[in-house]
Amino acid sequence: MLIRKPVSEVYEAFIDPAITTKFWFTKGSARLEAGKQVEWTWEMYGAAAPVQVLELEENKRIVIDWGTKAEWTFEVLSESETFVTITDSGFEGEAEEATHRAIGSTEGFTIVLCGAKAYLEHGIQLNLVYDKAPYAHVKG
After folding, report:
1. Are 29 and 38 in contact (CB under 8 A)?
2. What does pLDDT average to over the chain?
3. Smaller CB count within 10 Å for the chain: N or C?
4. At how many degrees (to 10) do helices 95-122 and 7-15 cross?
């Protein structure tokens, strides 16, 4: 996904939960730091995920383990354009189940990138993750 912002701003949006909560999860326990574990929470779904930060290369790459290995790469296209790629691998289970999980991951990360683009370029919170499955929201 092309995001029309400098790479430092785009990278920071995925490192700093104060920014990431504007387009993805509702709470992050801390900034991402290599070798550290954080927790990401989606309060509307009553879900949380422990996230082990495997590698960080400032303005270039983020690698985490959260049951699968997810990797963000940030490619500078110009001073004000960054191309972000996210790959997710290591899906377990039988072939059909692993395929289903991979497709779900692709859908989820596409939604995250679209939300990040809208927020970073235009300051708009689209609430895409929140609105993806309103029937699954927990009451509280």
Report:
1. yes
2. 97
3. C
4. 120
